[in-house]
Amino acid sequence: MDTDLTGKVALVTGGSRGIGRAIALGFARAGAQVVVASRKQAGVDAVAAEIRQLGGTALEIAAHLGDDQAIEARVENALAAFGRIDVLVNNAYWAAHHPFHEIPEEVWDRTLDVCLKGYFLCGQQAARAMIDQGDGGCIVNISSVHAHRVWPGDTSYGVAKAGINRLTQTMAVDLGPHRIRCNAVQPGYVDTHRAFGDPAPEYGSAPPHLHSFIPLRRHTTPEDIGRAVVFLCSPAGACISGVSLPLDGGLLATGVPG
Question: 3-state DSSP call for residue 11?
Answer without folding.
Answer: strand
